[in-house]
Amino acid sequence: MSRSLKKGPYIDARLMKKVTAGNGPIKTWARSSVISPEMIGVQFTVHNGKIFIPVKVTEDMVGHRLGEFAPTRTFRRHGGKVAREQEKGQGK
After folding, report:
1. Which domain holds residue 48?
2. What span, in angstroms and rounded, lies between the C-alpha atoms of 31 and 68?
């Protein structure tokens, strides 16, 4: 569900203060902050729950949230008996 138009987009105040200061990559846990046009070209390191993922903001990212570009889950592979048999068949 999107945020009300009268409230405007959510941007963490401390994060915006760091963006205007402009000192190198910004380390943040504010995954829910919306990317604004002032953030274009800024390098962020966004926490995914375990590590910090580097994110360079481009023009196409405006309006999205920072957390969308730092995935929290890593895909290993689809499991099951059929997948194991196919791997064994390819290994020959």
Report:
1. 13-90
2. 8
